[in-house]
Amino acid sequence: MTTHETPLRYIHEIPERQATRNPNAICLYPQGEGPDGMPITYKALWESVEATAKWLSSLGVSPGHRVMVVSENCPEMIILLFACSRLNAWPVCVNARLSAREIDVIATHSTPTLIFFTSRVSTSADKHAVQQGAKACTLPALRRGNHFVCQTPHTPPENARTAQAVAALVYTSGTTGSPKGVMVSHRGLLHFAEISASSGRVRANDIAYAGLPISHIFGLATVLMASFCAGASLVLRSRFDTQDVMLALRSPGLSILQGVPTMFVRMLSAWAEQEQIAAPALRYIYTGGAALDPALKAKVEARFGLPLHHGFGITEYAGSVCITDINHRRKDCSAGHPVQGVQIEIRRHGKPVAKPGERGEVMLKGPGVMLGYYRNPSETKNTLLPGGWLKTGDIGYLDASNALFITGRSKDMIIRSGFNVYPLEVEAVINAFPGIRLSAVVGKQQDDGSEEIVAFYEPEAGVPIDEEKLAAYLAEMLAPYKRPSRLMFAAQIPTTLSGKIQKAPLRRQLSS
Question: Do 27 and 81 share a structural domain?
């Protein structure tokens, strides 16, 4: 952004500005055959955003209301996101592959005025729509085959000041197992988008691959907002597919490839027999969402002939907190230096460490810090500390150059394929199964940097547990990335005298 331009206040002003400057530039290469797969220009996208905003308003959506979008990546999801911003309403984008129980928990907490299901592109969304008794949407801007339901049209909106500040609610399960709606600000998303565009990481002539869920902060901030701010294009896909990536590298010619480490692991595996990867335009590859393994970094860089850039971010911050320098290739697996406007502090026992290299809890502050957890003041107070600091819950250190290294995570959070999985949520579902007395869920590190989810279960005395039925039950109640890959019988799960589950012995059992 040049100095004479009026600063943007809301995220919908990003596509609005591009529609004025570059109306015929392509913003999306959607998935599909025929008209559904035709490229979409910024002008066409903005016209759809304005039409959708009017439609939402006619259904009672006003500033401070929530609109839930049950979807996988598609143009409708992006249109609704910006249309909500146009009205100062809050989009609540959730992955359609969540279970009906998980969808219901988030809907109960966020009390949306309207729920939209992108049935056209997602069989999972269509299944949820049928269960909700949703009706067909006939607005041309949102295409045929989608559905919506007005759930709580009389829910009081948030106050005007809060309504204008929040760009989206991004839900994360939280360490308590209860859903936590992260209030992501317009200011934070705009700040990171502008940094990405001005730093050269994203340019107007770039084409990036959008296979990461836009319902996740990585997909929302790093992929969508940064690309649109630069006036770039996105190859938009509902799911990551290695064969599709290979085709997109050739045509339309990806120049940016971003993903969690497991995505790169799958690509390397699927393309093992390919002597050469045709990627004439590729200039930047990036991974985040989980720790980067040195062996994976070396393999990816050898395969693509480019440095694999890395960064660190959390749901509670709009965009990446740290990113490696695009102009300097790192040999280590550091997450890089703090981006413009971000401060990082390493603390032990509540006090900053004395020197570089000392490990402790990672604290940060900057314009992307969340506004709080929606309707959860106690968790907000525990996470947002005096002085504007955000408690990340991650363990790491800063080296002498102020580069960040993440070495672990506090508490028991598991990272699987770039998604955060909180054991208490999974344990609560397992414990509800007939005959289960107690359960404990732990993560086991895998070679690709992801973690395997292992569930130990202790049955009631004398009650046999059918593991096939238990597995089927978990498949119904949990999203795929939350489901344990192993169920392990335990005659007695170890506990302290006060009854708190001890997971260290279980992890040692897995290691041996």
Answer: yes
> Is residue 41 within 8 Å of 25, Cβ to Cβ?
yes
Q: Which helix (H) or strand (E) holds 471?
A: helix 467-477
d(CA 492, CA 487): 14
- Look at residue 236 and tell me if it is in a domain: yes
Whether 334 and 187 map to the same domain: the answer is yes
Closest alpha carbon to 118 in 70, 173, 167, 49? 70
Q: CA 468, CA 258: separation in Å to the nearest integer?
A: 37
Residue 164 lies in a domain: yes
Residue 149's Cβ-count burial label (10 Å; 0-12, 13-18, 19+) is middle
Displacement of CA 313 from its chain's centroid (Å): 10
Residues 355 and 480 occupy one common structural domain: no
* 370 lies in the same domain as 430: no
pTM over 0.90, yes/no: no
* Helix, strand or coil, per DSSP, at residue 62: coil
Per-residue pLDDT, 427: 86
CA dist 123 and 417 (Å) reads: 22
Say what angle helices 467-477 and 423-431 make with each other, to 10 degrees: 120
Q: DSSP states of 314-335 as a string?
A: -TTBSS-SEE--TTS--SS---
Cα(249)–Cα(236) distance, integer angstroms: 13
Q: Is the alpha carbon torsion for 74, 78, 79, 84 positive or negative?
A: positive
Round the average pLDDT of the chain to a whole number and report it.
92
- Cis bond before residue 252 (omega within 30° of 0): yes
Cα-based angle 59, 64, 70 (whole degrees, multiple of 5): 60
Helix (H) or strand (E) holding 362: strand 360-365
> Both 75 and 110 in a single domain?
yes
Do 252 and 344 share a domain, yes or no?
yes
Summarize pLDDT for 29-86 with one digit per residue, the tens: 999 888 899 999 999 999 999 999 999 999 999 999 999 999 999 999 999 999 999 9
Domain boundaries, position 483: 414-511
pLDDT digits (tens, 9 = 90+) for 180-205: 999 999 999 999 999 988 888 999 99
